[in-house]
Design a protein that fits this description.
The protein has about 425 residues and is an alpha/beta fold. The chain has helices at about 5-10, 20-30, 50-55, 80-85, 100-105, 120-130, 155-160, 170-175, 190-205, 215-225, 230-245, 250-255, 275-310, 310-320, 320-325, 345-360, 365-380, 385-395, 400-410, 415-425, and strands at about 35-40, 65-70, 110, 135, 140-145, 150-155, 175-180, 210-215, 250. Strand 4 and strand 5 (about 140-145) form a beta hairpin. The radius of gyration is 36 Å and the shape is extended.
């Protein structure tokens, strides 16, 4: 078994960070077997080197090694690319084509960005991993293949599984051995070493003197976050090598090539996306409408009881909880609000007199249904009218203070401001 240092020299890997060495050790140990391997790490950390090491140290090294970027192949053709197709299987299939799993029989296939695979293709891939069988597109014949699969991804696979974008059974089949490559910001002692290697390579390529960094420039290099990892560092080294006339690079000169957002400060990582404003507002409107319908039903119940009994006090006593739910409790602070929820005695008396007149005439079942239908007709308002009415009431309640009104409506202040402009309030 070859040592880590020999592998580094053979495959041009630079660095001596313990986490990097551990990843290479795992690759060396797993190479002689046929175990499936999943390489994880951020974009630009050099994940493509691990499958090459595994293939060259395995008994398959004399057979084909095919690297497939799953994210670069359109969803409609990826099954054909991987498993092949028969003539006439789809429009444009003018001849039979062998897929990668047939061509690489006995060798190794590297599936880069495996998290981008469509769910239908994931089912086919799972079958290959389980029993080495696949079917060409447009065929019914089962074919066998002996392929070693090494996959890589920079996505969070657990989140993809939770969102049902990646099959859990396929994940565990691929990640029999998980090799994680650390980001460049966690390899501080390797950053300057890599820069010097890239600067030397570009000096030979462009036939120019090699650039060198001052001590202050080295500190700037180490403090940068390197979100693009080794790929970003290589690009910076190439730019500096080509564009700088002075071959000794100062800190100020180096800063001119680094993105301003690339400091080594804690990064803000976005979690799952929030729902759109439209969806949120729609849910709020539905909730408000259901609450209003419930209140209207309660009001109908009170009205019917008043019509039947004509006794305000008895109805108020029997339905005290219901009245408090609809009108709220009366406090001394009610006078400070821009509206009055208390019931005027003269209005109650007027209602009582009116209900006595109604009680004098018998109410038949047909009239009751007619009365209910009229109330139902009054309820039918558009969402636009309900939304406008709720916003007006909330603004009046809070004396035009948008922040308080937005909090009461359950929407953001920005959304409320947009609605105010939309409705010209």
């Amino acid at each position: 078994m070859e040592s880590v240092q020999v592998i580094k020299q053979r495959f041009g890997i630079i660095g001596n960070t313990p986490t990097l060495n551990r990843a290479l050790e795992k690759a060396i140990q797993v190479a002689p077997t046929d175990i499936s391997v999943l390489v994880t790490g951020e974009s630009g950390v050099g994940k493509e080197s691990i499958p090459k090491i595994i293939h060259q140290l395995s008994h398959r090294k004399h057979n084909k090694y095919i690297a497939v970027n799953c994210g670069a192949i359109p969803e409609g053709t990826i099954d054909s690319e991987l498993f092949g197709h028969e003539k006439g299987a789809f429009t444009g299939a003018t001849q039979t084509r062998n897929g990668y799993f047939e061509v690489a029989n006995g060798g190794t296939i590297f599936l880069d960005e495996v998290g981008e695979l469509p769910l239908t293709t994931q089912v086919r891939l799972l079958r290959v991993l389980e029993n080495g069988e696949f079917i060409k597109v447009g065929s019914s014949k089962v074919q066998k293949t002996d392929v070693r699969i090494v996959a890589a991804t920079n996505a969070n696979m657990y989140q993809a599984i939770e969102k049902e974008k990646f099959r859990e059974d396929l994940y565990y089949r691929l990640s029999t051995v998980d090799i994680h490559l650390p980001p460049l910001r966690d390899r501080q002692e390797d950053i300057h070493l890599l820069f010097r290697k890239f600067a030397s390579d570009f000096a030979l390529k462009y036939k120019m003197p090699t650039v060198k960094l001052t001590d202050n420039a080295i500190q700037v290099l180490l403090k940068h976050r390197w979100s693009g990892n080794i790929r970003e560092l290589r690009n910076i080294a190439e730019q500096v090598s080509v564009l700088e006339q002075n071959r000794t690079i100062t800190a100020d000169a180096l800063r001119g090539y680094l993105p301003t957002s690339g400091s080594n400060l804690p990064a803000v990582i976005k979690t799952s996306k929030a729902e759109s404003d439209f969806s949120t507002e729609r849910e709020i409107l539905y909730k408000v409408l259901f609450d209003m319908k419930s209140d209207l039903n309660d009001l109908k119940k009170l009205t019917m009881e008043l019509m039947k009994t004509g006794n305000i006090k008895d109805v108020e006593k029997d339905n005290e909880g219901l009245i408090q739910k609809i009108y709220g409790t009366t406090t001394e602070d009610d006078s400070k609000t821009p509206y009055d929820d208390t019931i005027d005695n003269s209005e109650v008396l007027s209602i009582s007199e009116h209900t006595e007149d109604l009680q004098a005439e018998p109410i038949n079942t047909q009239d009751k249904y007619h009365f209910a239908e009229e109330i139902e007709e009054e309820e039918t308002l558009s969402l636009h009218d309900k939304e406008l009415e709720l916003i007006k009431k909330s603004l009046e309640r809070h004396n035009g203070k948008r922040k308080l009104a937005a909090a009461e409506l359950g929407i953001s202040e920005r959304t409320l401001y947009r609605k105010i402009k939309q409705f010209d309030l």
